[in-house]
Specification:
Blueprint (H helix, E strand, L loop, with lengths): L39 E5 L1 H4 L10 H6 L1 H7 L3 E4 L26 H13 L3 E6 L9 H6 L13 E2 L17 E4 L2 E4 L14 H17 L3 E4 L16 H19 L6 E4 L5 H4 L9 E2 L2 H13 L5 H16 L17 H4 L4 H11 L6 E4 L45 H4 L6 H14 L7 E4 L7 E8 L2 E8 L5 E4 L12 E5 L5 E3 L2 E4 L4 E5 L1
Parallel strand pairs: 1-2, 1-10, 2-3, 3-7, 7-8, 8-9
Antiparallel strand pairs: 4-6, 5-6, 11-12, 12-13, 13-18, 14-17, 15-18, 16-17
Helix pairs in contact: 6-7, 9-12, 12-14
């Protein structure tokens, strides 16, 4: 039985390898049975995904019933957006860290989901919101009573918010909010009061919460707002003191989880540049979402021009590998629940959405796919419009489809029913690329290195893992492109076989590779 495991990846800058070509037959590539893990996680908003009881709200039983769809897609990991009790639709303000939101079901429903997911070799990762609670959490309501509360120091209180310093909230909004007995800190909004991690009791409780869910069988956590634990103000969030305190907390959290499951996978939301991200990878988090790379991938797909992804990413990975002692695993993605959906980012073009997927799914690390992107679901801010019901059928109305909110961007074409049997659909393109990752470890692990294809319209890079080496070429444009391969030398790897292609029109004749519009090919020695 194939099993998924957290795999440490050691990244280094590989020297550019020259190519020599010869005539090779193109293999018409379809989604093939997986030989190994794909290293692809699927982010799902339970409320929008699948309804089992007819109330219009997605639930855990509904999600469990759709695991075969996810297995068929090829993913081997699930990221569940918050499923704990909360007064909001999104769940990022928790009222009970040990419970399941009643809209979603029961703990037994969750255990069944874990059992069925694990039976399919799909790991389950929970969203864990530790930076703040809901203002309706019993800890906070008790804390708000005044100085005599046992939970007073679980939050940060001041007598007069107008005199509080600093006051420049890290998220751009007023960080101080009036309560019953003073003003409290909440950098996102008043309904999300920040926990005080200078209090050891808070840290101890959050570690206990993580341990609890690991004991239930959860395989890891997506850690919300990871840089805001101590990073509350613009004037101090990037200071060495705050950075060190954040790093120390996540190291403490990691050590606590190791007592239950040292293989638990931790990926953090650290929406910042490499210099800020790096310390979190030092014996703390396994991964941090690569926001810079997401922008690069989408920008390249939308522009139609080549990109130096291999060069830029190899340098970033070198840095992260040094900081993490080689244990870093990248977490590339295109979009998430807070960002413009891919179809909007590439101007509504299915071809460019396919190209964006081809770029993402040939990147090293654990790739993350936001639910519905495999269908080309559209969505722009506000946030609710990024999290709309998942379209199982062309016209909607099927029992499993959620109706908790209306769909502003729905089209018949962007549905499972419309794309399931179409070999050229975006859905089957995702299946194909994910299957490539399962077949070739070098597409999901190891290194990435730059390669100059000699074209303004072809993005190229070399992927390598162990003894396996691959050259990946993407035609970024709507016109056919030809890449001339240079002569190889005896001591250098020679790529001579056109192993994988997204389009059967791709061909290789001697040292020339013909790439159809928006096509991707993979060459092997």
């Amino acid at each position: 039985m194939r099993r998924w495991a957290k795999r440490p990846l050691v990244f280094f800058a590989a020297a550019a390898l020259l190519l020599a070509g010869c005539s090779a037959a193109v293999r018409k590539e379809t989604a093939a049975p997986a030989d190994g893990p794909s290293g692809v996680f699927y982010e799902v908003f339970v409320r929008s995904f699948a309804d089992s009881d007819g109330d219009g709200i997605g639930d855990l039983i509904g999600l469990t019933g759709k695991l075969d769809y996810l297995e068929g897609l090829g993913v081997d990991g699930l990221w569940l957006m918050p499923i704990q009790p909360s007064p909001s639709y999104h769940g990022y303000d928790v009222t009970d860290y040990y419970g399941i939101h009643p809209d979603y079901g029961t703990m037994d429903d969750f255990r069944k989901l874990l059992e069925e997911a694990h039976r399919r070799d799909i790991r389950v990762m929970m969203d864990l919101v530790v930076n703040h609670t809901s203002s309706e959490h019993p800890w906070f309501t008790d804390s708000a009573r005044g100085a005599g509360s046992n939970y007073r120091d679980w939050y940060t209180w001041v007598e007069n918010a107008e005199l509080a310093t600093p006051s420049d909230g890290a998220t751009g909004s007023d960080p101080w909010h009036k309560g019953e007995s003073g003003s409290y800190l909440g950098v996102f909004w008043g309904g999300m009061p920040d926990l005080n991690f200078d209090n050891p009791e808070v840290r101890k409780e959050m570690i206990a919460i993580g341990q609890y869910w690991l004991k239930e069988g959860v395989d890891g956590f997506r850690l919300d707002a990871a840089k805001h634990i101590f990073g509350d103000f613009k004037s101090t969030i990037s200071s060495p003191t705050v950075q060190q305190k954040n790093k120390s907390w996540w190291q403490e959290f990691r050590q606590g989880l190791n007592e239950v499951n040292p293989d638990a996978y931790l990926v953090g939301e650290v929406w910042d540049g490499a210099a800020i991200v790096a310390p979190y990878l030092d014996n703390a988090l396994d991964s941090a979402f690569n926001f810079d790379l997401a922008g690069t991938l989408l920008g390249a797909a939308a522009s139609g021009r080549s990109s130096s992804i291999g060069f830029t990413l190899s340098r970033m990975h070198d840095y992260f590998a040094k900081v993490s002692g080689g244990r870093f695993v990248d977490a590339p993605f295109l979009s998430n629940h807070d960002q413009t959906r891919v179809m909007n980012a590439v101007g509504g073009s299915v071809d460019r959405a396919k190209l964006a997927a081809s770029l993402l799914l040939t990147m090293p690390g654990n790739a993350f796919v936001y639910y519905g992107e495999e269908l080309g679901v559209a969505g722009l801010k506000p946030d609710e419009k990024l999290r709309e019901p998942f379209p199982w059928t062309r016209k909607g109305g099927s029992p499993e489809e959620t109706t908790w909110q209306s769909s502003s961007y729905r089209t018949e074409e962007a549905s499972v029913e419309a794309q399931e049997a179409d070999p050229d659909s975006l859905l089957n393109h995702y299946r194909k690329l994910i299957s490539w990752r399962a077949q070739h470890s070098a597409l999901r692990e190891g290194t990435i290195a730059s390669y100059d294809a000699g074209s303004d319209y072809v993005t190229a890079y070399i992927r390598a893992s162990g003894d396996e080496q691959l050259l990946v070429l993407h035609n970024m444009s709507e016109q056919p492109q030809t890449v001339a391969l240079p002569e190889g030398k005896p001591e250098q790897a020679v790529f001579s076989k056109l192993e994988l292609t997204t389009d059967g029109a791709a061909s290789m004749d001697g040292q020339a590779i013909s790439l159809p519009p928006y096509g991707t090919v993979v060459l092997t020695p």
